[in-house]
Amino acid sequence: MQIIEEVLSGIYAIKVPLPGNPLQAINAYLIKGRERNLLIDTGFNRVECRTALLNGLKSLDAAPDKTDIFITHMHADHCGLINAVATEKNAVYCSAVDAKRINWAITPEYWPKNLAYAGSHGFPVREHRGELLQHPAQKYGPDSQHDFSVAGEGDVLEAGEYAFVVVETPGHTPGHICLYEPDKKILFSGDHILDEITPNITMFYEGLPDPLGWYLQSLDKVDRMAIDLVLPGHQRVIEDTHQRIVELKQHYDNRLREVMTVLEGGSMSAFQVAGGITWDIPCAWDKFPLQQLWFATGEIISHLEHLRQQNKVRRFECEGNLLFELVK
């Protein structure tokens, strides 16, 4: 795998490996400037990722003191190495919402609350608690809390020959943000738009009430922008943004229909509904890797909540568990 590639003039993609992750790598981007550089996203907080990122920055002569950092969202594969590159002389930009969650995720209360939330939706937390405590989101995040510089809608960050505008795109996470260069018509999309896979739209503990609804609105927002090239957080660049957005929206529409079809079998927990969905994983539901069970269940919760917002599904509590059924 080529580690560094100049994708546009002065813009370099640094492939940071993600060991044990189906995505294989994250695209960290460096925009070179005469006086200051801008790094977009970082990688997991683990040795292999740190080595690749720091070696990449060194080979591009991008000293951390002269390199500001832009975090698209709170997931550990994007923010985990903040503390490896942050110094007293650079800024780390993030949305206010996700900055708060990154710092909260380091506290002892955060992960247990997420586990309890998943358990209320039928996820077998008790049986897998030990393994879940080793989840990458818990294990490979930043070492300590950080004082972020807040970036919000319309803010402008200049680097090299580019002037990037911050675009808020909530959905994949509550505070996901992208960077848009209107003159060059390029978008750094983080995980908002990916080429070969669909972003995981999951339900967060104390997150957005309808993350899928917000995500679809964010897709429409980006679809109205003039974009010639999308530089995503994973996989290949995207040249036909509109077509990819059409494909993504069709995927989620099909998934919503499938969720409703599964619910024709009666009231169920989100975990039970997820077990009835067709997934692009070559094994039975009871053989899914634990991490994929987690992602799948979270995604189905977001679909069920979206249907609930549309009054197509009802949620109710039964013996401490949350169940869903079709509105008749």
Question: Layout of SSEs?
Answer:
Elements: E1 4-8, E2 11-17, E3 25-31, E4 37-40, H1 47-59, E5 67-70, H2 76-79, H3 82-85, E6 92-94, H4 96-104, H5 110-120, H6 125-132, H7 136-139, E7 149-150, E8 156-159, E9 162-168, E10 177-181, E11 186-190, H8 211-223, E12 229-232, H9 241-263, H10 270-275, H11 290-309, E13 313-318, E14 321-326
Parallel strand pairs: 4-5, 5-6, 6-7, 11-12
Antiparallel strand pairs: 1-2, 2-3, 3-4, 8-9, 9-10, 10-11, 13-14
Helix pairs in contact: 5-6, 8-9, 9-11
What does this 3D model show about the protein?
- The chain has about 325 residues and is of the alpha/beta class.
- The chain has helices spanning about 45-60, 75-80, 80-85, 95-105, 110-120, 125-130, 135-140, 210-225, 240-265, 270-275, 290-310, and strands at about 5-10, 10-15, 25-30, 35-40, 65-70, 90-95, 150, 155-160, 160-170, 175-180, 185-190, 230, 315-320, 320-325.
- Helix 8 packs antiparallel against helix 9 and helix 9 packs across helix 11 (about 290-310).
- The longest helix has 23 residues, at about 240-265.
- The protein starts with a strand and ends with a strand.
- The mean pLDDT is about 95.
